[in-house]
Write a structure and sequence with these properties.
Oligomer: homodimer
Number of domains of chain A: 1
GO molecular function, one term (chains A, B): dipeptidase activity
Family (chains A, B): Belongs to the peptidase S51 family.
Shape of chain A: globular
InterPro entries (chains A, B): Class_I_gatase-like, Peptidase_S51
Keywords (chains A, B): Dipeptidase, Hydrolase, Protease, Serine protease
Strand content of chain A: 15-25%
CATH class of chain A: Alpha Beta
Largest interface: A-B, 44 and 44 residues
Radius of gyration of chain A: 17 Å
Organism (chains A, B): Flavobacterium chuncheonense
Largest sheet of chain A: 7 strands, mixed
Structural class of chain A: alpha/beta
């Protein structure tokens, strides 16, 4: 049994950190009094303490305590005892490197597959797919592998951005990049726009939020997926 | 002695492939009758043959023959015998993976350091820096290392894009990403806008084109660098 929220972003334009998700999170984490936060992705390079403090403030409004995984001497034990787990956004290369360096990728997968409620945003969502191969982030550190948690049988592209038809910039669009990915990798890629998230309950995977998501499959034209679509057979 | 052109992009908006650079390239490669092209970065996943054909057409206008490195049984020998070398853009992760897989990263560095004229555009420019850690590309394949050719003692960010103040997208700006890079890596990063290139002649490194470039140093505010600035002491 799995209970997972995979969000494109933590923050919407003109809204507070996690604000749009808080009603959903109050229900998602209803049995937890405390959330274990994984601060490894360090957005903008902020410290683990600074990042954990930011998350603590947001979760106070739904009456949850927050502890940072970096505060524990034994992170595997901390994961095993957690009532709920949140991995925040930042740099996916850094996050994946630190999960491997601390030897907890496997333990994290295990406890979440066994039912510990999990929330990921941005980089913390990227790692829910089969690999981090469709992240938008800059490769600022070299991880020992691109393989990630595989809670879903496809890859994600959070913060999905539609091509800007007025742009004169010659860098690749997001769609071009994902099509390149499919020249070398078979798994589908779901482009999650900011404000969208997936809710995973056991074998059910449902698109939530008001926006459509863009689904890319190898050798097929991309299509738009409506909110409330079931994606459990996507692989 | 080194003779290198490191260009942000192959193509400007509303202009043909390499068109804006051709007068410069005619001079840069004046002693070469034939150019060895490294097609490994495969933009949009096109084949080595397709990519080489595109480059062949562009170089015909300045009367140079083009051969693809993939056409040779012994790529190291091909590099050693080349009169001029061009590495085109595409995906930097793929390019670096293929350079290592074919065991030619070292040979390429050696012949260019010994004077074979080199041109890089986009991904082919990224590899001229110390590492590929400031590429904009998607990690579609896993390279054995992020270390690259080190023709210059800093890193590059080709296709440099200024932040869009009207954007409501919450993904990181290029400047934010480069600042994150500097939390973990000491070397300067030069953001090269489309239309800019570096000319390296022995120890001289000069910014060319009409635009300024944006220079990021660890623990310093970013500054704009004017065309014709000497960057030989940048490290």
């Amino acid at each position: 049994m799995k209970k997972i929220i995979i969000a494109s972003t933590s923050t919407l334009h003109n809204s507070g950190y996690l604000e749009y998700l808080l009603p959903t999170l109050a229900k998602h984490f209803e049995k937890a009094t405390s959330i274990l936060f994984i601060p490894y992705a360090r957005p903008g390079g902020i410290t683990h303490d600074e990042y954990t403090e930011k998350v603590r403030k947001a979760f106070t409004t739904i009456h949850k305590k927050v502890t940072g995984l970096h505060e524990f001497e034994n992170p595997i034990e901390a994961l095993q005892q957690a009532e709920g787990i949140f991995t925040g956004g930042g740099n996916t290369f850094l996050l994946v490197s630190e999960l491997y360096r601390n030897n907890i990728m496997e333990s994290l997968a295990k406890v979440v597959n066994n039912g510990t409620p999990y929330l990921g945003t941005s980089a913390g969502s990227n790692i829910c797919g089969l690999t981090m191969g469709t992240t938008n982030d800059m490769p600022i550190v070299y991880p020992p592998s691109f393989r990630t948690l595989g809670f879903i049988s496809f890859n994600l592209n959070p913060h999905y951005l539609d091509p800007d038809p007025s742009s004169e910039h010659m860098g690749e669009t997001r769609e071009t990049r994902i099509n390149e990915f499919h020249k070398f990798n078979p798994q589908p890629v779901l482009g999650l726009r900011e404000g969208s998230w997936l809710e995973v309950n056991n074998d059910s995977i449902v698109l939530k939020g008001h926006l459509t998501a863009r689904l890319f499959k190898q050798n097929e034209a991309a299509i738009e997926i409506a909110p409330e679509t079931e994606l459990n057979n996507l692989k």
